[in-house]
Amino acid sequence: MYVPRWQSEPLARRAVARLSPRGIAIDLCTGSGGVAMTLRAERPNARVVASEVDERAAACAESNGVDVHRGDLFAPLPRDLEGRVDVIVSVAPYVPTAMMALLPRDTFTFETTLSYDGGEDGTDVLRRIVNTSPRFLRRGGALLLELGGEEANVLESELARCGFTVVTTLLDKDGDVRGVEATFK
Hints:
Layout: H1 9-18, E1 24-28, H2 34-42, E2 47-52, H3 55-63, E3 67-70, E4 85-90, H4 124-136, E5 137-146, H5 151-161, E6 164-171, E7 177-184
Parallel strand pairs: 1-2, 1-4, 2-3, 4-5
Antiparallel strand pairs: 5-7, 6-7
């Protein structure tokens, strides 16, 4: 189950800023539901739904009051959301498989590799999110993804191909890449 970390806070704040007071947001790979809970707390009249593939994490998110649907990414979400969503946000697995061994040992105290392993270049799950998001987002809606390293550059052409514009790479206070924000045209 993904445990929220401080690096995800700016992403959650940007998602709140993009969510209208009565809008709709999706939190993919919600883990324990930290981002979804932030959205709900800051936009109490908005509809916030989440998905999570891990059964324990989904149960934790549900116990935290999150409207969580168990399954892979968009698959378990209600179809009435298609074309209506203001914000899709995700802290999806994005660590390249070869880098998994370099993560701190305590990382796996409460989490499995499922929470981190993003495939060969770290973008396997991120690409799936980018490619399916247009089906759910309304025009002008935002996609916010936590990522790292060169993944923002790797996804640049994919985002453009899927109809995203105004792509902003999100940096932390040290100048390290922490995410990407893209607007669906």
